[in-house]
Write a structure and sequence with these properties.
With 128 residues, the chain is of the alpha/beta class. The chain contains 4 helices and 4 strands, in the order E-H-E-H-E-H-E-H. Helices cover 34% and strands 15% of the residues.
């Protein structure tokens, strides 16, 4: 079985993603701080991961953490919330589902916005 990991900033981010995901995914929290020690511990945990994703907030601290994680884990793929929501924890579940689904994750059916077309357009006019 393929092991996929998502690195997030905090516990609330983790809980939010778990509400949307429909497959087993390991989610590691940095709890808002990052150091050489944490990097080493995280590297050990990620040794067996097939895919690593970074999903941090779009604020100053989230962007700083993303840069640090990029340096330490250059193979990681990056997921971004929309700037208007600023934080993963503030992102609506249907938007999180769309972001995760576009990255190839399975999401729970009830969390998908039925009015989002495959190309991302919302509420396309009838007949289109």
């Amino acid at each position: 079985m393929e092991e996929r990991v998502i690195i997030v900033e905090g516990k609330t981010d983790r809980e939010r993603l778990l509400q949307v995901l429909a497959e087993p995914v390991l989610i590691y929290c940095t709890y808002g701080s990052y150091s050489a020690d944490k990097a080493g511990q995280l590297a050990e945990k990620l040794e067996t991961a097939d895919e690593v994703y970074v999903f941090t907030d779009e604020d100053h601290s989230g962007k700083k953490l993303r840069r640090q994680l990029s340096d330490d884990f250059p193979h990681a793929q990056h997921l971004y919330t929309k700037r208007m929501f600023a934080q993963v924890a503030n992102t609506p579940l249907d938007v999180l589902a769309e972001i995760l689904e576009r990255a190839g994750f399975q999401v729970q059916e009830g969390q998908r916005d039925p009015e989002v077309w495959s190309d991302g357009d919302k509420k396309r006019p009838q007949g289109q």
